[in-house]
Structure formats: structure tokens, C-alpha cells
DNA sequence: TCCTTGTTTAGACATCTGTCTAGGCAGAGA
DNA sequence: TCTCTGCCTAGACAGATGTCTAAACAAGGA
């Protein structure tokens, strides 16, 4: 269940937008991450997982936090997983999810424009 | 053309995911921003604008950087604009775009999980 | 072995999204 | 005023997305 095929964080992932313009490939790779974040349900799921002190959350708790059906939550968790933002493991009856900070950090750094030149006209 | 209706950056926008779990409303608001970033073309557009030294780019230059038609570029710029990530102004014949760093910073900070507890199982 | 519970997969369906063509508006120059 | 250029809007359309129900799979317990 744990995906091991995500060792590569594109080199361009750690440079801010204010640096060199993004290549086609970098943009495509990074857009996948942002797309996964671009849904309120997924953002709340990620928030619920990330804010959990132990670092792990059972699916049943996540499902309880929404009025959506189990399959829908499962679908959103899969999208987050395929984007490399979270991972999971089954332990007995339950499945636990946790965040993968590396990918989040890469996306965060891309958007970090602090210290960038302020546009004259604003 | 400049939108002035975007003074409010939701209070929850500046807290990292590792803090308190996102409210429904905050998640919806923030997801709009990430959704706008979740397309390779828009990410490249933003990158082209943000990496420009003068801080401003003419639409004609942006259009030249893609094989897409003008209306398609215009559509993507509109999405970025409505997400509060960029703004624009017509000067004579040309229209110039620049980034709005506040919104980018808010999204960046949300994803900044540096210093968060690393999950035990990874 | 069978039943129960937790979770995922499969498939259907309405809605949203990215792209295009056609056409319109704004400003500059003849 | 006319025309040209730059950019946007309107509308169409194929494909992607979010949601559901039904069904399957996995693990634990009687």
C-alpha cells in the first residue's frame, strides 16, 4: 500500500516562482500537487491529518468529519496519495494515513515570494 | 480592470496545516487558490509573471510563450485574477499583468510544515 | 466457516474545465 | 472617421472530476 515510487522531487520544485521561469515538465509535475490541493474536501482531509498530534489518523475518523460517503472520502484520499502528499498503511482492520512533508515543503517553497520585488503599480 | 474587492485574506490563511484543523469556509477559500494553481499552463503563466524583473508582463509576451490561442491564455489569466493571485491594467493598447504576493504568501505558509512532527512510520 | 465491520474498487451520471472559433471592444495611427 | 492591432467575451464541445450506489476485499470474532 505504501508507494515507494516517489523518490524524485523534481529539481525545479525547490526554487521559488520569482526565480527562473518554470519548464513545461516542472510545471506539469507541480500542477499535479496543487490540483490535488484544489478541492475543499481534500484540503480539510489534509488538514485533519497534518494537525493530528500523533501524525496519523484512521480513515474512520476522517469519514466521520464529513457528510460524504465512505467511497467519496476514499477517492479523495487516493488523489492525495497519488499526488505524493500522504501515505497510508493498514493495521489490522483499520487504515492509517499520514502526511509526507517533503512534497508539501516543495510546493510551499515554490510559492514563497517573500523578498521578491514589489510591483510598482500596486 | 483592477479588482479592489479582495482586501480580505481569511484569518486562517496564515496558519500552517499542522496547526488547528481548517474550517469548512477556510478550506473552501484556500482551495480556490490551489485550484487556480493546479493547471500547468496557469503555473507557467504565474511563473513567467513572477520571474519577470520589472514585475510586469504584457499579455502579448505571455501568449507568445505558448502554442495555445489568445482566448485560452486570456481564460487562464482570468482564473488567476479571480483567485487573487495576479492583477492587471491596460496601458494604451497593451495589458500588463503582475503578481499579488499576499495571496501567494498565504498559500505558501499554509503548506509550510517545516518543524512539524515527523510521522513514526515512514 | 460464516458473519460483521472497515475500507476500497467499479461503474454511472451530472457538473465542471480547458480548449477552440467567431465576434466584439478599446486604443493608436492614417 | 476608418482601419489595424491587441485583448477579451460568448458559446460550443470533448474530456475530466466529484459524487453516489452496489459490490468486492480484508481482518477479526463467534
TrEMBL record, chains A, B:
<dbReference type="Pfam" id="PF01022">
    <property type="entry name" value="HTH_5"/>
</dbReference>
<keyword id="KW-0804">Transcription</keyword>
<dbReference type="InterPro" id="IPR036388">
    <property type="entry name" value="WH-like_DNA-bd_sf"/>
</dbReference>
<dbReference type="InterPro" id="IPR001845">
    <property type="entry name" value="HTH_ArsR_DNA-bd_dom"/>
</dbReference>
<protein>
    <submittedName>
        <fullName>Metalloregulator ArsR/SmtB family transcription factor</fullName>
    </submittedName>
</protein>
<dbReference type="InterPro" id="IPR011991">
    <property type="entry name" value="ArsR-like_HTH"/>
</dbReference>
<keyword id="KW-0238">DNA-binding</keyword>
<dbReference type="InterPro" id="IPR051081">
    <property type="entry name" value="HTH_MetalResp_TranReg"/>
</dbReference>
<keyword id="KW-0805">Transcription regulation</keyword>
<feature type="domain" description="HTH arsR-type">
    <location>
        <begin position="22"/>
        <end position="119"/>
    </location>
</feature>
<dbReference type="InterPro" id="IPR036390">
    <property type="entry name" value="WH_DNA-bd_sf"/>
</dbReference>
Amino acid at each position: 500500500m505504501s508507494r515507494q515510487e516517489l523518490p524524485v522531487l523534481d529539481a525545479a520544485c525547490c526554487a521559488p516562482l520569482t526565480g527562473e521561469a518554470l519548464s513545461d515538465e516542472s510545471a506539469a509535475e507541480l500542477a499535479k500537487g496543487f490540483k490535488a490541493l484544489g478541492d475543499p474536501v481534500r484540503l480539510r482531509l489534509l488538514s485533519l491529518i497534518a494537525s493530528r498530534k500523533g501524525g496519523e489518523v484512521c480513515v474512520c475518523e476522517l469519514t466521520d468529519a464529513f457528510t460524504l460517503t465512505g467511497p467519496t472520502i476514499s477517492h479523495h484520499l487516493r488523489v492525495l496519495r497519488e499526488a505524493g502528499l500522504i501515505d497510508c498503511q493498514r493495521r489490522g482492520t483499520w487504515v492509517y494515513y499520514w502526511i509526507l512533508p517533503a512534497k508539501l515543503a516543495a510546493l510551499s517553497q515554490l510559492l514563497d515570494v517573500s523578498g521578491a520585488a514589489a510591483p510598482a503599480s500596486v
